[in-house]
Amino acid sequence: MYHLTKKLEFPSLENSSSDGLLAYGGDLSEERLLLAYRNGIFPWYDENSPILWWSPDPRMVLFPEKMKISKSMQKVLTEDRFRLTKNSCFEKVIDQCAKVEREGQKGTWITEEMKNAYVKLHEKGYVQSYEVWEDDELVGGLYGVDLGHVFCGESMFSLKSNASKFAFIKLTDELREKNYRLIDCQVYTKHLASLGAEEIPRKDFLEILKDEFK
Hints:
This protein is α+β, with helices and mostly antiparallel strands. 33% of the residues lie in helices and 26% in strands. A hairpin with an 8-residue loop joins strand 3 and strand 4.
């Protein structure tokens, strides 16, 4: 596995393991994180590990026009139960994403180091948050890296049933209207697949990324 130093670079993605692990080390500077996302790489590790960098093949993505909305969720969308805001309380969203318990996962990968790095990216306008409110209570939300034509979803949380789905659907509607190519969901989950996300070859994902940064 490739060891990153202070030099701002990543190895060829062909060097990644079968599960997508590409390199370790380096830092979470603004420059390195943006270089990573623009090349199909993202950090994912826990507090007991060094920084680990991933680029899985295949890649789980959602093309906005392929979003699937169940009948029960369509009913939720027509009710006045939830209210959506954008970038109104980013730190609360990332804190909740770190706290929420997830099936099959012990602890959180959103360490203080990760949180601080994404807060800085948010302040620079590269990371967006979407918040879901029920009355005046924050009950769900998500955040991700916005590349201008691809939105790289990072994490979501839900304290009330369907709250995170509400945020995800509203995000997808906005991105479709703005002609975004896709939402990067990183790796397969049944939940994402039920919403219309699909796996595509990494090379196809990279071609879409590179179109904008040529």
